[in-house]
Design a protein that fits this description.
Blueprint lengths: L1 E3 L5 E4 L6 E5 L6 E6 L5 E6 L3 E6 L9 E6 L4 E6 L5 E6 L4 E5 L5 E5 L6 E8 L2 E6 L3 E6 L5 E6 L5 E6 L6 E5 L4 E4 L6 E5 L6 E6 L5 E6 L4 E5 L9 E3 L7
Antiparallel strand pairs: 1-2, 2-3, 4-5, 5-6, 6-7, 8-9, 9-10, 10-11, 12-13, 13-14, 14-15, 16-17, 17-18, 18-19, 20-21, 21-22, 22-23
Keywords: Repeat, WD repeat
Protein name: WD40 repeat-like protein
GO molecular function: U4 snRNA binding; U6 snRNA binding
């Protein structure tokens, strides 16, 4: 497990024991986002001061070495590797999505279209990117041409997070409007609105088989949703936290 924090650190954890394996220091501001490359060899981290660090985690002990730094003069809300690990995308407060060569961290493409901060973005496959913005929309992009293929609308406040199912047949978005919305990326149809959270939805993620969805919120709960059954109600709820998750 990899985590980031406002103490400027990136930490790796043993998923079974919960012990800290390594503390990676080097950022000079709050770290807002982390992502592990598909092969597990690299970790990318993005900070409030607009820097992206890429760490080499190839050794068995996960000893990190700082390889490259990129500055785009705005806070980095998202870092996310492409499925083959050759590209890295970032989203920033300047309303842009950028893709970078994951080895040299040279800029590849810039995506324009959102009218407000881009809070979240993910690769669906090598050809498609989904993004969510404070402009209340989710956009679908051609990852190679930067063309905006579709705009999904319906949220009543800022979109804070997006995720794509492992099969690529569903997209989910979370918002300050306290709802989770499930979309069909092919037809652009809104499939369901999940309303159990009582505060901002801060994170969403699919299970590996795509049959369940987990969400975290400012209401201090983690909720589990069964996408094969009645997805309009929560399958389970965890609430041991005392602060937003």
């Amino acid at each position: 497990i990899v985590s980031c924090a406002d103490d400027s650190s990136v930490r790796t954890w043993d998923a079974e024991s919960g012990t800290v394996l390594n503390v990676m220091t080097g950022h000079e501001d709050e770290v807002w986002s982390v992502n592990i490359s598909p092969d597990g060899v690299h970790i990318a981290s993005g900070a409030q001061n607009g820097t992206v660090y890429q760490w080499n985690s190839a050794t068995a002990a996960w000893k990190p070495t700082l390889s490259t730094v990129v500055s785009v003069d705005h806070g980095i809300y998202t870092v996310h590797y492409s499925p083959d690990g050759t590209s890295l995308l970032t989203t920033t407060a300047d309303r842009m999505i950028r893709t970078w060569d994951a080895f040299s961290l040279t800029l590849l493409r810039t995506f324009h279209g959102h009218s407000h901060v881009v809070r979240s973005a993910v690769f669906s496959d090598m050809n498609t990117i989904f993004s969510g913005s404070a402009d209340r929309t989710i956009r679908i992009w051609d990852a190679n041409t930067t063309e905006c293929l579709a705009v999904l609308e319906g949220h009543e406040d800022e979109v804070t997070c997006v995720a794509v199912s492992p099969r690529g047949d569903k997209v989910v978005s979370g918002s300050i409007d306290r709802t989770i919305r499930l979309w069909d990326p092919e037809t652009k149809e809104l499939l369901a609105i999940l309303r159990d959270h009582t505060d901002t939805v801060l994170a969403v993620s699919f299970s590996h088989d795509g049959n369940q969805l987990v969400s975290a919120s400012g209401d201090c709960t983690i909720r589990l949703w069964d996408l094969q059954a009645n997805i309009t109600s929560t399958l389970d709820s965890l609430s041991p936290h005392k602060s937003p998750i």
